[in-house]
Amino acid sequence: MKIGFQLVVSVDKLWVRVLRAKYNLEEVLPLSITRRNGSRLWKGICDIWDELKESVIWNIRNGRNTDFWYDTWIDSKGRLVSECNSNEVPRPVSVSTMVNGESWDWNRLQGWLPLPILEKLEACPIPKTSFGDDVPGWRWTENRCFTVGSAYEHLVTEEARNECSICGVGVEDIDHVLRRCTKAQALWLQVLGAASIGGEFFTQPFELWLMNNLFLSTSWGGSSSNWGMRFAIWCWLLWKLRCSMIFDDDFSEREDLLHRGLRLITECERVFGMTVPARVTEVRTPVRWERNGVADSLAAMGRLHGRSGVGFISPPDGVLSRLDSERTERLVEESFADLDSSRGREMGLVFDPGG
Ligand SMILES: [Zn+2]
Known about the structure:
Number of helices: 17
Largest sheet: 2 strands, antiparallel
Strand content: under 5%
Number of strands: 4
Bound molecules: zinc ion
Number of domains: 2
Radius of gyration: 27 Å
Strand order of the largest sheet: 1-4
Order of helices and strands: HHHEEEHHEHHHHHHHHHHHH
Oligomer: single chain
């Protein structure tokens, strides 16, 4: 997001000029930037472009590049088109055309906008040619400057509003993923059977449900030993399945969840022996999606140690370094293969999560 935003606001920086020239961007904030051949960095920016466009607020100078109705400029609440009283949908016009001499064109505007908006407009300086081009700003902070924190916060609240991308019912929180989603419910019914599952399984508070299943092996697992471990495996598979369904472009469910799980359980029990209880040390609840190999390396490690479903108290070293490299430098450096990476650092290409 930071790199994308720089692409819009820092048009004078060398790396931005390089990128913009390479992908032929003429407008400051084009509607679409999709290109047939793009580097990994470019594809990443394309993925967030719509979100990014929504995050831009225009600081009016000469008012020529900003659309009066369809760009966000007057305050962070959104576009003026949603405030328009007129029966007709307004045509796109630049902010500069809404000026009459030394003031806003009140004659026209009064018919279109409600009083509170007109008052806000009155407080805005009149655009002037001598002020130069309009300048894009970041919508989610008061001073309109980008911060990683505000971008993250914005994304998280946006995401919190999102419905489950698999069943479309309910908010996609961790309770939904592991228990309430139709996908999860179907699995639990298959695993435990309708008769033994009982009402409480689906009604207990989430944390309690999780703890009961992980540590009180007898509650729903019935006669099956190692329920804590089995339960952790089922949860893990539900999570993995969801990640694949959402992030793998060519996802297909080759083996159904039930059989994959049973296979994995057999494997684990063979490694541990039937009597060893699962050593679940900590349950971490992920808060947002991450498309990277970290989950996979964790899974691989878990498998390597024969400890699927075991939580890590702190992230293992390999994972940390992987996180670092995946998020940042690799993306940038691949895109600038012709520049060596020290040069990249010098130019400030390397992502700085500090802000
Ligand atoms: Zn769902």
